Amino acid sequence: MIKTDVLILGSGIGGLSTAIQMALRRPELTITVLTKTNEGESNTRYAQGGVAAVWNAEVDSYDKHQEDTLDAGDGLCDEAIVEIVVKEGPKRVREIIDWGARFDKNPAAEYDLGREGGHSENRILHYKDLTGWEMQRALMAKAATLPNITVLEHYFAVDIITQHHLGYMVTRLMPNIECYGAYALNKMTGEIEKLLARVTVIATGGAGQIYRATTNPVIATGDGTAMVYRAKGWVENMEFVQFHPTALFNPAGENPVFLVSEAVRGYGGILKDRNGEEFMQKYDPRKSLAPRDIVARAIDNEMKLSGDECMFLDCRHLDPDGFKAHFPTIYEKCLSIGIDPVQDMIPVVPACHYMCGGIKVDAVGRTNIQQLYACGECTNTGLHGANRLASNSLLEAMVFAKRIALDIIDKIDSIGLKDGIPDWDARGTTEPKEMVLITQSLKELKEIMSSYVGIVRSNVRLKRALDRLWILHQETEDLYHTTVISPQLCELRNLISIAYLVSRSATMRRESRGLHYTTDYPDKLGFVQVSLL
């Protein structure tokens, strides 16, 4: 058993930022961060483009950034949250710079601000095309200097602990559900350990692995959102799954697929078809710099009309040296599959990239479960609405990390550790005899979601998805209750939960808005939040 003041599940930008903000202010608190792989492996490190913040007040303003965010969110953003994130964001960026994060500068020693789809001004701070990696590096280095932060690697959180584990009936409408910590599988020993905490923070990232093609790493299995939903927490707007328009098309297949950052289009790259003809002017006056939902649907439609497996991003007209300097990783990756962006158009396809819905939280990151907070991509704060504006995600995580830390610090002295929590009960289970049952179910899940709950949806497709997911759910629950728990089985179980939440939410939204487009309801209706209570 491990006892700690604050337990944080996840070591990406949300988790580590929260830990650092608290550790700096309350060095006497014990803060334990769990990660199911290595500390540096998270969705954060794969973020290429950058972090959006109003930096040059002479040409940019909070109002412009807010308007761009609201426009991308297609009527479902919480305007108060948008204002909070936009106005507090630059301070959080300055903090991470003070902690050692590096961002590119121009020859005048000023920050080289990029521009991406949906932004009206250049406001994206970046580190080449490895911004997330650089921010993750800086956070890890800062956390290592704070002795009251302990990072436990190779711990897989199985369930958060509530009154349910004390034998009480817990329902989704109960006003006083409490979190006492989590059960986690120590992958080094194979034992499930009990971690008790006064306060718990979920910062487990996204769930892109529900789809066949995703830019997310293999760890993005929606663990936190699934755990909170099982514990009767509230989730919201799960139907809004952002497909990045420009993943690199590789006929050999990859998991995850390689992301060609939106910053490439901000730098001047132009979307074209196989014949070198532009097509985005047919869909939006902003052309290749339209918001992601519009661009992804446009590419998807052009592929269906032409029968081609991909569209293309043309960078041949750009300065070759400038392109290589700004996007060295993208350039090298393209070369590795026989594409030279200086001479060839880059083949691209949409791929699952970001979950805009998630655990419902308030303005300081509190869930409906007491002593439980959430931060980052696993949440629905109200910032993104029906579609995330590019490079707002890292900003959101840093802003909410600070707000969560301050709220916890204000309350934690009145919260104690819960006594009488039972150890994990694994009686009546056996070692799994056939891992193929898990791997095959995962393949089926990805096919179901990719075929029926993708960029374009319909009632028939969604019903078929839900029918097949129910069968997978029953089979997986049988395995879960009769075999010894493994990370693979837990991830499959979580992914099935996320796939259900996305599909069910999509059936409840009888309109087309932002990232959710259905052929049965092609028009927008009122401004509705879809909650699964």
Structure description:
- The protein has 533 residues and is of the alpha/beta class.
- Helix content is 35%, strand content 17%.
- The chain has 13 helices and 19 strands.
- It has helices at residues 13-25, 62-73, 79-98, 131-144, 223-230, 262-266, 292-306, 320-326, 328-336, 393-411, 436-452, 459-482, 487-508; strands at 2-9, 31-35, 51-52, 124-125, 149-153, 155-161, 181-186, 191-202, 235-236, 241-248, 270-272, 311-314, 346-355, 358-360, 372-374, 379-380, 456-457, 517-518, 531-532.
- The strands form 5 sheets. Strands 1, 2, 5, 6, 7, 8 and 15 form a 7-stranded mixed beta sheet that branches. A 4-stranded mixed beta sheet has the order 16-14-9-19, with helices on one face. A 4-stranded antiparallel beta sheet has the order 10-13-12-11, with helices on one face.
- Strand 7 and strand 8 form a beta hairpin.
- Helix 2 (62-73) packs across helix 3, helix 5 packs across helix 13 and helix 11 (436-452) runs antiparallel to helix 12.
- The two termini are 32 Å apart.
Average pLDDT:
93
Please compute the radius of gyration using only Cα atoms. Answer: 22 Å
What distance separates the N and C termini?
Answer: 32 Å
Please tell me what the overall shape is. globular
Structural class: alpha/beta
The main sheet comes to:
7 strands, mixed
Helix content: 25-40%
Report the β-strand fraction as a percent range.
15-25%
Total DSSP helices: 13
Total strands: the figure is 19
Which ranges are low-confidence, i.e. pLDDT below 50, for 5 or more consecutive residues? none
